[in-house]
Amino acid sequence: MEPVIQSLEAEPVIQVTLSDFDNAWEALMRRVIAEATSSSSGSNTMYYGADRQQLGTSRSIYGFVQCSKDISPSKCEQCLRKNVDDYRSCCSGRQRGITERPSCFMRWDLDPFFGLFEDNIAPAPTPPPEKGDRKIPIGVVVGITGVLTFVISMLLSLGVALCIRRKAHQENGNESEQEFKNEVLLVAKLQHRNLVRLLGFSVEGAERILVYEFVPNKSLNYFLFDPVKRSQLDWRKRYNIITGIMLYLHQDSRLTVVHRDLKASNILLDVDMNPKIADFGLARNFRMNQTEANTGRVVGTVGYMPPEYVANGQFSMKSDVYSFGVLILEIIGGKKNSSFHKIDGSLRNLVTYVWRLWNNESLLELVDPAVGENYDKHEVTRCIHIGLLCVQENPADRPTMSTIFQMLTNTSITLHVPQPPGFFFRDGASPLAEGLTIGQSSIMSFACSVDDASITSVNPR
């Protein structure tokens, strides 16, 4: 991964030559790297170092380095040496700045920072709070050790708002460990304005911590399914949320990733109500030319999982297309697919309800009353039509995200007539009973959630 190199702010004028500054900088970094990567008798490697270096007659330059503890001291030194090389190649003479890689961090400045330099002693990592102590001031980072503590402190000092997500140790340790690694590796590689940015992570014993950018407006479901707050989502905001989700799924992901848990609670909203996709713990990265995969452990959320995945553990990019279609219908209607709605005297789920509206040629009855009358009827009807194409039962019938992009951005494209949706309530039958066709001898672990409640079961067939 390419290093991140950042200049913090305007540089002051100091009366030293470029050569003198670089010599002082190099001497400082040699000491702090040695401090971070060596171990004194009877103690472990600290993985961090902080010091100051005299600069001219009246100034000092302050430096701090640290590595994550999941690498060896030699790898730590190699990583920090690469940051030094970055300074030499791009930043010689820069009087304050940051260079960082996923496993190591370096900062230098003409002024003290992080509170590290009182009496030239680098502090020990922040201790965890006492049990039962819930009074933690806003902006104070507790219970996190290693480089992440100082990265968080630095970001807070620069006015960057953060979301710190602690993933507790679970009994299914191997599975939760894999989900954590998935999330870190995928989000670190993916870059898109409609993704929540991962700023750092920590691995300490059984505890796992992720640090994301702070997204102030919580999640889509916080507004969409609330009887009062939903009125804040007019049609233009809802349409922008639909297209924002589609833009990530379609064009700017550099890897072929199946999210496997697209749902309203995993769509976060920034200050302008733009969507940002979160929670890649269940995501899978496909290899080149791979189109689908199978699993014996079905994980996801009821209402958003396509029938071929629930029934046979088969997933592909068309799985996310199905989930996206459900989201379109939920965003327009303000209703959950996993809830039930009365139509023709019977209870139906949302996709069945919309399918009945399609057959009755009354699609606009889906529109959330909170939207009011201020919307483009043709635009809304086209979005519902696209949503129905996405939730068709047969994955081969569902459009690709590239085709969906064209459908949403080019109104001259004629849309096909949709086939019945997956998990469609036919009269007198449960959609789950119709969709589940697991083979006689298969054993499948089924872990899903409905309205944030977790369900896990293992059923021999």
Automatic annotation (TrEMBL):
<keyword id="KW-0675">Receptor</keyword>
<feature type="domain" description="Protein kinase">
    <location>
        <begin position="136"/>
        <end position="413"/>
    </location>
</feature>
<protein>
    <submittedName>
        <fullName>Uncharacterized protein</fullName>
    </submittedName>
</protein>
<keyword id="KW-0812">Transmembrane</keyword>
<keyword id="KW-0418">Kinase</keyword>
<dbReference type="InterPro" id="IPR000719">
    <property type="entry name" value="Prot_kinase_dom"/>
</dbReference>
<feature type="transmembrane region" description="Helical">
    <location>
        <begin position="138"/>
        <end position="164"/>
    </location>
</feature>
<keyword id="KW-1133">Transmembrane helix</keyword>
<dbReference type="GO" id="GO:0042742">
    <property type="term" value="P:defense response to bacterium"/>
</dbReference>
<keyword id="KW-0732">Signal</keyword>
<keyword id="KW-0547">Nucleotide-binding</keyword>
<dbReference type="InterPro" id="IPR008271">
    <property type="entry name" value="Ser/Thr_kinase_AS"/>
</dbReference>
<dbReference type="GO" id="GO:0004674">
    <property type="term" value="F:protein serine/threonine kinase activity"/>
</dbReference>
<dbReference type="GO" id="GO:0005524">
    <property type="term" value="F:ATP binding"/>
</dbReference>
<keyword id="KW-0325">Glycoprotein</keyword>
<dbReference type="InterPro" id="IPR002902">
    <property type="entry name" value="GNK2"/>
</dbReference>
<keyword id="KW-0472">Membrane</keyword>
<dbReference type="GO" id="GO:0007165">
    <property type="term" value="P:signal transduction"/>
</dbReference>
<dbReference type="GO" id="GO:0005886">
    <property type="term" value="C:plasma membrane"/>
</dbReference>
<keyword id="KW-0723">Serine/threonine-protein kinase</keyword>
<keyword id="KW-0677">Repeat</keyword>
<keyword id="KW-0808">Transferase</keyword>
<dbReference type="Pfam" id="PF01657">
    <property type="entry name" value="Stress-antifung"/>
</dbReference>
<keyword id="KW-0067">ATP-binding</keyword>
<dbReference type="InterPro" id="IPR001245">
    <property type="entry name" value="Ser-Thr/Tyr_kinase_cat_dom"/>
</dbReference>
<dbReference type="GO" id="GO:0009626">
    <property type="term" value="P:plant-type hypersensitive response"/>
</dbReference>
<dbReference type="InterPro" id="IPR011009">
    <property type="entry name" value="Kinase-like_dom_sf"/>
</dbReference>
<dbReference type="InterPro" id="IPR038408">
    <property type="entry name" value="GNK2_sf"/>
</dbReference>
<dbReference type="Pfam" id="PF07714">
    <property type="entry name" value="PK_Tyr_Ser-Thr"/>
</dbReference>
<feature type="domain" description="Gnk2-homologous">
    <location>
        <begin position="2"/>
        <end position="113"/>
    </location>
</feature>
